[in-house]
Amino acid sequence: MRRRSFLKKSALGTLLFSTARFPVSALEGPEMTRLTILHTNDVHSRIEPFPEDGGKYAGKGGAAKRATLIQKIRQEEDHVLLLDAGDMFQGTPYFNFFGGELEFKIMSRMGYDACTIGNHDFDAGIDGLHKQYTRHANFPIVNSNYDMSDTIMSDHIQKHLVIEKGGLKIGILGVGIELDGLVPPPLYGNTIYQDPITCANKEAQFLKEEKKCDYIICLSHLGYKYDNDKVSDVQLAGQSRNIDLIIGGHTHTLLPKADLVADLDGKMVTINQVGWAGIALGRIDVSFEKNRKGKCISCGNSLIQ
Fold it and tell me: What φ, ψ does residue 260 adopt, rounded to 5°?
């Protein structure tokens, strides 16, 4: 009887498979969810493409081209995040004339999910930042190491945030560079700089343990790396826990491919940065299995032609 039952089941299985009625999903690996992370940094008020003057970046960049590329990717992918690592302001007459209004309006229209602050974002003063942000931006600013509680921006800076995409909980935090020596004190007012590594680890632990995030991103305006002991993205990654990805800015580094640095627990942290002036759009695709364990499957920086 056992042999007869086994033969019946085997025959049925063979029939279902051969007639294409066998569920193919039964032969596949675990169900995957893919998150596509798009990012910019140090756009510096570059609204239009570089002029066609024979220069290195002639004709490259521009907000319209970036918006078109972002829209195309959103049509192709189900779960997309769009992030910026600071220095949105300063660099063209658009900032001098409009004071940051145009930059925030354009980013809002593009659908940015979050940004952090760069040193040049204080160039119109903290009052100017507040004015343009509250009037023209519809996305959050995250920063965990600038204490702005005694400034006009106190209610508009988040230490962290959680965004849900495709059933995943994505934690986002931000850190910024020391302002003293880069920005005249009257422009940043009572903003207090705190150690970015300590602050980033504190927020990452909270996002992981309390908010139960599946993936944690740090938007950093520290700089990729330096020849001295100045804190950088590479240092942050090596001295961190719970951070999966660092999206960097400040040093205008166009990485040919994302860097990988082991954290305090030996886990690899992905670091990426896409130059400056909007010449490139960073893209990082991360796949998640049912157990919510994320694995970076591809990283690429697309020059905006």
Answer: -125, 125
With respect to residue 41, please indicate whether it lies within any of the assigned structural domains: yes
Q: Which one, of 204, 246, 241, 245, lies nearest residue 225 by Cα?
A: 246
**How far is 121 from 239, CA to CA, in rounded Å?**
27
User: Does a structural domain hold residue 12?
Assistant: no
Q: Round to the nearest angstrom and report the end-to-end CA distance of the chain.
A: 71
Q: Which domain holds residue 290?
A: 29-303
Q: Which residue has the higher pLDDT, 180 or 11?
A: 180
In a domain? residue 233: yes
CA distances from 188 to 125, 142, 148, 255 (A): 6, 16, 9, 30
Q: The CATH number of the domain where 140 resides is what? A: 3.60.21.10
**What are 148-174's pLDDT values in tens digits?**
999 999 999 999 999 999 999 999 999
pLDDT tens-digit readout, 237-287: 999 999 999 999 999 999 989 999 999 999 999 999 999 999 999 999 999
Tell me the CA distances in angstroms from 113 to 3, 84, 89, 138, one per residue in order: 61, 9, 18, 9
User: How many domains in the chain?
Assistant: 1
DSSP character at residue 254? B
HSE, CB side, 13 Å, CA atoms: give it for residue 123.
19
Q: What is the pTM of this model?
A: 0.88
